[in-house]
């Protein structure tokens, strides 16, 4: 039986993971066609800017939570057994302030900071911190073993795994999603297109999903070692500003964040926000900079800055779009709108997309008979 011809549009973590899963059993010939590829740094291309870590935020019983649950074993296995993927384990501490509950960032963190979260039986070493362990103005906190991903290593690793399975990569820009069916490396029209274009699906012809919006994240990357992955449910600086710290694996530096600014398209770092981010991170984790020779706590001058960055999370009202649609005579499976949880849901959500692909291709086979 001839292999199925599939084009995956999008070279971010969602597109690459979906392409890898589709290429594993040899029944599909996969082409990845994308405007941006690993190695690019562009405001349109969210994946390189991510932290990226595993901090579950899905509602209990939701598809989102299921995707995160199914992703953890893969990331943990890679961290333990495949150093080439650029993932390592790191202790996470999630701090919660009751006053943040209704804020933009507090709602984002609502499940993550729960005292009885669904993920407590998924991640190792989950525990609630005692009152004696809480920092100033912190109402509750939990701790567990997480992972942090060096995106500059992990994305090329995904590409390498795809290449080993015969996936072909092409640079391409499409005005209409149906055009993607005609760039398959075989020269023939593809049987199916998978749309993993993230925020670009807002303007992509045939899709034009107005439920998509950016959730702007600004970060500072430093050489300092915090010794822990730490975050807090909100800040006193702004409703949509937050504080998180994580050290990327394999020398990738430490990410200091951040913001969750909905409908903000600004691509350039805001210097004032950068200063607030650095101050918040030092307040949350003084060990980030330590003390000077006189025993005085250092300030932001103690940070060794690598660069500043801005990424636009592909947030979607109503959640991820994961469904099959016929557009211009082309069968399309949509897999986009992952907001700030693309990495930590990537394997679970991509596996769900593959099921839709297999179902759609099965229907096409029946139609031919």
UniProtKB/TrEMBL annotation:
<feature type="domain" description="FAD dependent oxidoreductase">
    <location>
        <begin position="5"/>
        <end position="354"/>
    </location>
</feature>
<protein>
    <recommendedName>
        <fullName>D-amino-acid oxidase</fullName>
        <ecNumber>1.4.3.3</ecNumber>
    </recommendedName>
</protein>
<keyword id="KW-0560">Oxidoreductase</keyword>
<dbReference type="InterPro" id="IPR006076">
    <property type="entry name" value="FAD-dep_OxRdtase"/>
</dbReference>
<keyword id="KW-0285">Flavoprotein</keyword>
<dbReference type="GO" id="GO:0019478">
    <property type="term" value="P:D-amino acid catabolic process"/>
</dbReference>
<feature type="binding site">
    <location>
        <position position="340"/>
    </location>
    <ligand>
        <name>D-dopa</name>
    </ligand>
</feature>
<dbReference type="GO" id="GO:0003884">
    <property type="term" value="F:D-amino-acid oxidase activity"/>
</dbReference>
<keyword id="KW-0274">FAD</keyword>
<dbReference type="InterPro" id="IPR023209">
    <property type="entry name" value="DAO"/>
</dbReference>
<dbReference type="GO" id="GO:0071949">
    <property type="term" value="F:FAD binding"/>
</dbReference>
<dbReference type="GO" id="GO:0005782">
    <property type="term" value="C:peroxisomal matrix"/>
</dbReference>
<keyword id="KW-0576">Peroxisome</keyword>
<dbReference type="Pfam" id="PF01266">
    <property type="entry name" value="DAO"/>
</dbReference>
<feature type="binding site">
    <location>
        <position position="197"/>
    </location>
    <ligand>
        <name>FAD</name>
    </ligand>
</feature>
<comment type="similarity">
    <text>Belongs to the DAMOX/DASOX family.</text>
</comment>
């Amino acid at each position: 039986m001839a292999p199925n011809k599939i084009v995956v549009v999008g070279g971010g973590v969602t597109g690459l993971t979906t392409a890898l899963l589709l290429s594993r059993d040899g029944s599909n010939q996969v082409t990845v066609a994308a405007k941006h590829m690993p190695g690019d740094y562009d405001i349109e291309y969210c994946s390189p800017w991510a932290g990226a870590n595993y901090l579950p935020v899905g509602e209990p019983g939701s598809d989102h939570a299921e995707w995160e649950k199914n992703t953890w074993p893969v990331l943990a296995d890679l961290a333990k057994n495949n150093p080439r993927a650029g993932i390592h384990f790191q202790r996470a501490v999630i701090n919660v302030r009751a006053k943040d509950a209704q804020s933009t960032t507090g709602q984002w963190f609502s499940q993550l900071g729960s005292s009885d979260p669904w993920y407590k039986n998924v991640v190792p070493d989950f525990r609630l911190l005692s009152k004696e362990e809480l920092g100033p103005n912190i109402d509750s906190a939990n701790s567990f073993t997480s992972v942090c991903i060096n995106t500059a290593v992990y994305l090329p690793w995904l590409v390498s795994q795809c290449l080993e399975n015969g996936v072909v990569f092409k640079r391409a820009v499409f005005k209409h999603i149906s055009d993607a069916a005609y760039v398959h490396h075989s020269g023939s029209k593809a049987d199916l297109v998978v749309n993993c274009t993230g925020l670009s699906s807002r303007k992509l012809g045939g899709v034009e999903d107005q439920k998509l919006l950016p959730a702007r994240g600004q970060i500072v990357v430093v050489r300092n070692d915090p010794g822990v992955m730490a975050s807090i449910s909100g800040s006193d600086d702004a409703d949509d500003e937050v504080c998180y710290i994580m050290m990327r694996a394999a020398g990738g530096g430490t990410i200091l964040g951040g913001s969750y600014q909905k409908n903000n398209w600004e691509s350039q770092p805001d210097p004032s926000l950068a200063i607030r981010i650095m101050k918040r991170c030092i307040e949350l984790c003084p060990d980030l900079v330590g003390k000077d020779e006189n025993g005085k706590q250092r300030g932001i001058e103690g940070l060794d800055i690598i660069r500043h960055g801005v990424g636009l999370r592909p947030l979607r009202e109503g959640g991820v779009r994961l469904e099959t649609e016929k557009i211009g005579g082309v069968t399309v499976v949509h897999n986009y709108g992952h907001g700030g949880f693309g990495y930590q849901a990537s394997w679970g959500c991509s596996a769900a997309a593959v099921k839709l692909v297999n179902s759609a291709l099965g229907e096409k086979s029946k139609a031919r008979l």
